[in-house]
Amino acid sequence: MNLRKYLKVYKKFLHTSLASELEYKTNILVDLITAILSLIGSIFLLSIFFQNNGYIGGWTFEQALIIQGIYTILNGITNTWFNPNLTEIVKHIREGTLDFVLIKPIDSQFFISLKKINPSGFLEIILGFFLLFFCIRINQINLNLSFLTQSLITISCSICILYSLWFFISTTTIWFVKTWNAIEVLRSFLYIGRFPLNSFSFSLRIFFSIFIPIAFITTIPSEVFLGLSQLWKILLEVIVTSVFLITSRKFWLFALKSYSSASS
Amino acid sequence: MVQNIIDVRNLSKSFDISSKEPGLKGTIKHFFRRQTKSLKVIKDISFEIKEGEIVGFLGANGAGKTTILKMLCGLIYPSEGSIVVAGYLPFRRKENFLKNITLIMGQKQQLIWDLPPIESFFLNASIYDLDKFEAKKRIKKLSEMLEIDEEVFIPVRKLSLGQRMKSELLAALIHEPNILFLDEPTLGLDINAQRNLRKFLQKYNKETNATICLTSHYMKDITSLCKRVICVHQGAISYDGKLDLLLKKLSPVKEILIVCRSEDDAIKLENFGFPVKNKIKNEITIKIENNYITSSLKTILNNFDIVDLYINEPPIDEIIGKVLNNKEYDI
Amino acid sequence: MISNLINRKIFTLLKVQYSNMLEYRVEIALWAISGIIPFFMLNIWTNNNLNESINISDVMLSRYFLCAFFVRQFSVVWVVFSFEEDSLMGKVSPYLIQPLNPFLRYFAQHLAEQITRFPFALIIAFFFFIFNTESIWIPNLGLLLLSIVSTFLSFLIQFLIQSIVACLCFWTEKASSIERLLFIPTLFLSGLLAPVVSFPAYVKSWIYLTPFPYLIDFPANLLSGNETNISGGLSMQILWIFILFPLFMKIWSEGTKKYTAMGS
User: What is the helix, strand, coil percentage profile of chain C, to 5?
Assistant: First the structure.
């Protein structure tokens, strides 16, 4: 019964935010062009790296495109869900309308992380999938059941890790109202995710595995595509994901406690 | 018997305020050793509110009205004391408690800016577990009471402030709460919109027997809606009781403007023994205590040649202003 | 006399904005950090020996990317976002009745922000040199001055482009999506991620006709001592300013005309 209510509410969220966005139609069109150009630009950059080299960090151009595809999907998800909702959270806290959310009989994390949606991110997700299918063709990957489940698990895990990171930073808004620039830092670090992690120097690789789990976000899923991944890596990814999700939830509840015992 | 729907006992609230010296040095010092001091904003207050009552909270800016209201709806955690609202502890924010209350803040809005209000109504309906049929019924009923119709199909950003407030109310009342918390609901509205809002609240209270707690800076809101007021002064309750009694207690004197036939009469009256406020030619203003009004007027009318006479009630804003600035008014 | 008046106005504006910006130093520091993408790119280039094919030594390339970082730091523009927010909050009308073009106000804001940002950029450069001691160099004074001038010209070009986009706010509510669209070619073609020298020939044939390589590649080459056509670059920068400035004035006057006609 509860699940049905949440589904129903989510349907309303979808309806209202799509309707809001459609009020600005030219905006959507421009965003769609931006998404296409952005993908072209990324492939262009990759092609510059490969124009005189066959391998980068042990990856061929065709293999590196897989990472690009996964990155594009994840970026599309970020633009569709995480980004507009973060903007909304900042607004809620700056204008004090978080109170309205908190007195509603619904989970506040659910409400604030799913209320908004930006339809122009969909195109990026679709483009990312197209690129992935293209990569499956050119890399002659066998589409069998174990590959599909593995890739599904790892990609969902990356989405969850990414969500946790974003939600974590959004939560800090409760103490520091201006977190936009922290998001920019995260964004620029995540930018790395569109290249094979092996192409960076050892120290940078360590940094990006520990502080920003890039390895878990794009590298492991793309290894699944190449048939390189071992079972323990996937298990580790699942564990890391649950740690991230639980921590972000706990952190939100903690933040709410301090919100309700401070501020006026 | 009428039940106490809100019961507050010895409630206190302290906020930790961190103080920081200016400049970079202060920031660094602040980062390592935070100096916080506890500021008690609500000091040991107790009151109860019966079902169906309309209670006005009065107080200067920063007196603690909003903090009390937020504690009552569970947004702020009390430091000490107990609050029971409709049988629940508010800060636990249990689903059934939340379905029972609503909060309306005059300066903040929850409607979706780019869409017609009707979309926000249906969104709220789904959050409060109402089916479509029920939601439609309630929207129809409330929009009749609020006297809005086609406005609900116009995007919020194109509505006037008054229309927006009505829609806010509808969105906040769609789940038919028993307890309404209103924080400055008439802020920024024009006089007609204010009057309509008050009329609606009165009607809503009569029809549903809902309990209403409101704060406002417009005295008219308080005088026309609330029989009972709670005055908050620096976090403590300075008066809790009937509004009439407060007014009587605070303004024991009425001013009477007397227009005499001639200036001589006025001079005679001036020396008659009443406390005189001022005198301009043949017009004289005197102050008489409430209890002696009739007898004094008789004396004056018998002894002087009076052309005209006005009894001035002291303006209520002035009286309330006194409450806001002073501490104790026990009755 | 008139120029004297303008100078005094700008000076006062600068002073006010600088103290305003000091309040935001944490944000500005974070923002400076978010600009370190060029260093990640450098890491890919040198770690995979990609630079051998374009005949730039490791040291010169690392200097190039450091300079690209610096040029980017001092040519970041966000007029569109400020103007959009101001127009949504209804601040434009009071600006219009003041005897000062509001864009002069934004201009002062940007300069003040750059001054605040300077120490943070220096700190980041300092760390860069700790890790890359061999790339320390002292640019010759003439080139340094020239590169400061060209960085400023690059800032001016971007400021003018964004101001033109910002003026579109008079016609559509959200001009920032157009800015995001324009940012994509700026990102990929300006030389922030890869020096323009490394671009394939089919791009190099037309790119020097666009303003993009003069935004980062040209000033960064100048500052780092890499080979570049100094007089050609500077004259192209000035040419673009001469094209953009009248365009901006035109669209500004059209926009204000429309704005006052609407009477909102």
Answer: 80, 0, 20
Beta carbons of C48 and A27 less than 8 Å apart: no
Tell me if C200 and A51 make a contact (CB, 8 A cut-off). Answer: yes
Residues 57-76 of A with CB under 8 A from C: 57
Angle between helices C37-47 and C58-73 (to 10 degrees): 170
Per domain, the residue ranges of chain C are 2-262
Which chains neighbour C (Cβ–Cβ under 8 Å, 3 or more pairs)? A
Using a CB-CB distance cutoff of 8 angstroms, which residues of chain A are in contact with residue C33? Answer: 185, 188
* Separation CA C145–CA B83 (nearest Å): 69
B215-224 pLDDT tens trace: 988 888 888 8
> Hey, what are C243's tokens?
């094209």
- B159, B114 Cβ separation under 8 angstroms: no
Q: Are residues B224 and B257 in the same domain?
A: no
Nearest to A97 among B93, B95, B108 (CB): B108
What does the block give as tokens for A120? 């122009």
Q: How many separate domains does chain B show?
A: 2
In this complex, which chains have at least 3 CB pairs below 8 Å with chain B?
A
The helix/strand count (H/E) of chain C reads as: 12, 0
Let me know if residue B238 belongs to a domain: yes
Domain that holds residue A34: 2-261
The encoded tokens of residue C96 equal 């219009």
Give yes or no: residues B81 and B211 share one domain: yes
- The predicted complex's ipTM stands at 0.87
CB contact under 8 A, C172 and A26: yes
Name every residue whose Cβ is closer than 8 Å to that of residue A14 and which is 6 or more positions away in sequence: A117
Nearest residue to C72 (alpha-carbon basis) of C133, C121, C130: C121
Contacts of A46 in chain C (CB under 8 A): none
Q: Are residues B244 and B298 in the same domain?
A: no
Q: Which of C145, C32, B110 is nearest to A97 (CA)?
A: B110
Contacts of A56 (CB under 8 A, 6+ apart): A49, A50, A64, A195, A196, A199, C44, C48, C50
- Coil vs helix vs strand at A47: helix
Domain containing B272 equals 253-312
- Split into its structural domains, chain A has a count of 1
Which residues touch B143 (CB under 8 Å, ≥6 apart)? B149, B152, B170
pLDDT tens profile B228-275: 999 888 889 988 999 888 877 777 777 888 888 888 888 887 888 788
Looking at the fold, whether B23 and B108 belong to one and the same domain comes out as yes
- Given a cut of 70, the residues of chain B with pLDDT beneath it are 1-2, 18-35, 314-316, 323-331
Q: Which of A262, A263, A259 is nearest to A112 (CA)?
A: A259
Residue in A37, A52, A181 nearest the CB of C30 = A181
Separation in Å, CA of A206 to nearest CA in chain B: 29
What CATH number is given to the structural domain containing B166? 3.40.50.300
**Does B286 share its domain with B242?**
no
- Is there a single domain that holds both residue B148 and residue B185? yes
Does C54 have pLDDT greater than 90?
no
B229 and B306 together in one domain: no
Domain end (from B248, B269, B300)? B248
In-domain check, residue B119: yes
B266 and B243 together in one domain? no
